[in-house]
Amino acid sequence: MEFVTHHPVLVVSLIKIAIALFVVMTALAYLTWFERKVVARIQSRWGPYWVGPHGLLQPLADGIKFLFKEDIVPPAADKISYVLAPFLALALALTTLALIPIGPATISILGQPTQLVISHSNVALILLFAISSIGIYAVVLAGWSSNSKYPLMGGLRSSAQMISYEVSLTLSVVGVLLIAGSFDFYDIVGGQSGHWVHVIPKWHIFPQILGFICYLTAAIAETNRVPFDLPEAETELVAGFHTEYSSFKFAMFFMAEYANMITVSCLATLLFLGGWLSPFPETGAWRWQLYLPAAGLIIAGIGLIVGGLRGVQLSAKLVFPVLGIVCLGVGYLCTLPGVMPVIQGPFWFTAKVFFLLFFYVWARGTLPRFRYDQLMSFGWKFLLPLSLINLVVTSLVVVLRLR
Amino acid sequence: MSTTVGAPITDNKPQNKTMVLNMGPQHPSTHGVLRVILELDGEVVLKAEPVIGYLHTGIEKNCENLTYSQCIPLTDRIDYLANLSNNLGYCLAVEKLADIEVPKRAQYIRVLLTELTRISSHLVWLGTHAIDLGAMSVFLYCFREREEILKILEAISGQRMMTSYFRIGGLALEPPPGYLEWISKFLDTLPGHVAEYEDLLTENPIWKLRTQGVGVLKLDDAIAMAVSGPSLRGSGSDYDVRKYFPYSSYDEFDFKVQTQTAGDVYARYQVRVAEIKESAKICKQAIKKIPPQGPFRAEVRGLVPPSREEMKTSIEGLIYHFKIWTEGITPPPGEVYQAIESPRGEVGFFVVSDGSNRPYRVKMRAPSFVNLQALPHLVVGKLIADVVASIGTIDIVLGEVDR
Asked: CA-nearest residue of chain A to B199?
């Protein structure tokens, strides 16, 4: 107890880390489920269905399977780097999430002022880019240390691609930084509050639409997703840099990829989509928006109960109504005056991130893949000039305005 | 490009700067057990050498030990995506040898079913080709429609894939009632589905980038290598066995041979998609032409089994039935070559009879085998991703390559 009172920051941070890790790991697992379900819908099939109601336990089953598979280290591999690479990938991917705030700085939980971020820094954006850049080493190490040809080519492609697109990614963000004038996420999001003509939110996406498009494209490339998934182009390089990995090491690369997806989506939300801010004005007439999280949960709850009872599977009939009741309960909690202001920020933040993640999955279900040289020329000859133009125009506007 | 094929590596590219990559025989995009030895400089292919023989089944040799009608099920297994085409080729060859006239009704049903097979084979090709280039969804859409064709084939012949439905002298059995309605219902929905694939691919900029100007096969080279089928027609020739050497009453049908002149992967894609539509037209004409009643087998004593009724009611019929099913038929000595247009190109059957009940020799001209030799011409000087596109575009079936 003495320890707790003497080191309040440490204890609070540890609690935050535990919660964040739990939430993120669950989100990762269910992101795979979500992706499979959405892609299945696009492709007119069912997706995971048999492990739990509507395949809800599929991520768990996958995890167990990964754990129990034989962990193979190829005899010719460079053991240290081979083992290090997946750890590096996952650790770095998760570390970046520590810098991402999901709610405003001025909220209080249980009477204590609390920040909804694990680590607040006034150069958070630079830190985030710095950490995520090290992630390339994981890919290079994995490709090289496997001592096999397909991983080598995958590693080469990956490193070239990630380094190239990192340039566009960073440049596309600079426009936002010029407008916001800060590296601190609280300042960046704070600068996006307010509305034009009382309706259009002052999010950076509107003045920075070019930057947003550049960012989104570069981010998809940065996370090696379709249509830029060359490093792991299954039909060309088998599985790219993680061809030789099995068991949990493979799962770590897998999780790292999804964690990176979440990170770049969070970043896009913070920088361009107004972070945790509601799209509606905070005037009296719009007060009903405070009930939106509760309304969403209650609708979802009713849907789960009705859908579950009408379902064919016995497990769905048993589990979904229970989940629905939980949803209703949480929805009721969200209407309590103590909880309502706290929940607003995370609600909008999650909704926006979710939308971006859906965009990712949607692209995967629709688009073919670029070729390596086309990808590079797209990055250097199209995306980079575009983000440079965006940068120059933004700087001009900002400078002229300051005068 | 053709000058560099198979050429030794020149001095300015020393041995230690290149990498030899084994693509296959276990590789996601070699469509079976094809192995391609690639010599790479970075990602650029310097030399490509297809290695075949991993699926050698000895079908040609086996035929010499079987009676004429026992060979038919083996022809299914050569090109397992277009079984009825092979059935037809072999049956036509033996019918030519024994001089059997097939009734018109059976001929039209043969045309209808082989054209359905062509649609289904092209659908498999389109799906796998698209997934090779990263467009996942098209694959599942194509298989959805192919499934319907397989169901129709199952209803008619009792088998989804290994149909063996065409027999020497006609068909194996009377098709089930209502099959024409089912097929025309399917054909009515097909154009909408094809439009769906084209929406996803034809005008897609990434698809065009990946296919236009890739894997160019000049007409002269194609003719010199005896390439046939859509791969040839994509290069500008209008050679189609159905038009040039009509068989099975194809001269009574009104259809256009689809050609493109570019000779690249995109041109061959256009040819095949157009062929799907054209085949549907032929099917519709066939449905109109097929008389509801009539013999489905020729009535030739000693060469074609008598009808079930005749076998039960006449002593002569019973004797012929017994003789045909025990010792088989004995065509007169001689040799014939019969070519048909399979989805992959010209399938030829060269059958030699020595007057016994077993063929002396059955030689198959397999279009996949012949077309495969164009592969090095398509890929040398290109990137690995183009190898995948090129293997897909020549549409090989390894069962047919190795036989």
From this structure: A366
Nearest to A340 by CA among A276, A290, A289: A290
The minimal CB distance from B383 to the residues A149, A367, A372 is found for A372
> B6 CA to chain A: closest CA distance, Å?
23
- The Cα–Cα gap between B353 and B168 comes to 15
Residue contact A238–B27, C-beta within 8 A? yes
| Alpha-carbon distances, residue A383 vs A159, A180, A220, B205 (angstroms) | 18, 23, 13, 16
* Domain coordinates in residue numbering, chain B: 19-49, 102-297+371-402
The interface predicted TM-score (ipTM) is: 0.75
The CA radius of gyration of chain B, in Å to the nearest whole number, is 22
Split into its structural domains, chain A has a count of 1
| Residue among B39, B136, B138 with most chain A CBs within 10 A, to mutate | B136
Below-50 pLDDT ranges, chain A:
none
Tokens linked to B341: 């247009």
pLDDT in tens, A238-248: 767 778 888 88
Whole domain around residue A66: which residue ranges?
62-277+336-402
Neighbours of A309 (CB within 10 A): 12
Beta carbons of B141 and A153 less than 8 Å apart: no
A377 inside domain: yes
Q: Is residue A382 part of a domain?
A: yes
- Establish if B132 touches chain A: CB-CB under 8 angstroms: yes
Using a CB–CB cutoff of 8 Å, tell me whether B204 touches chain A: yes
Helix (H, G, I), strand (E, B) or coil at B180: helix
**Chain A, window 214-233: residues with a beta carbon less than 8 angstroms from a chain B beta carbon:** 226-227, 229-230, 233
Closest residue to A365, CB basis, from B21, B136, B209: B136
Inter-chain contacts counted by CB atoms under 8 A, chains A and B: 84
Rg (chain A; Cα; Å): 22
Name the nearest CA neighbour of A52 among A305, A308, A255, A248: A308
User: pTM to 2 decimals?
Assistant: 0.83
Helix residue ranges per DSSP H, B202-255: 205-211, 219-224, 230-233, 241-244
**B102-297+371-402 adopts what CATH topology?**
Cytochrome-c3 Hydrogenase; chain B (1.10.645)
pLDDT in tens, B61-110: 888 988 888 888 888 888 888 888 888 999 999 998 888 888 888 999 99
The 3-state DSSP composition of chain B as helix, strand, coil percent (nearest 5) reads 50, 15, 35
B-chain residues near A157 (CB < 8 A): 43
A45 contact residues in B (CB cutoff 8 A): 140
